[in-house]
Model the fold of this input.
Amino acid sequence: MHRCLEQGVIWGVIARNPADRISPSVDDTEVRPPTADQVLALFPEAERENPDLAVFLMMAMVTGARRGAL
Done:
């Protein structure tokens, strides 16, 4: 966001970058995605419990898309 706003300053669209005054909050916890075996074990259960969830998981596994895109 900061870089986008900075480009606005360079182009003269805005006078100053409002993001300069913000101190970022960084979540430094390591994200550990499930292993392939864990996902494969989860899929049949999801398919049995909620077919819509199973489709969502399959799309996530096959495409690697982010949550917002799914």
Residues 46 and 54 are 5 Å apart (CA to CA).
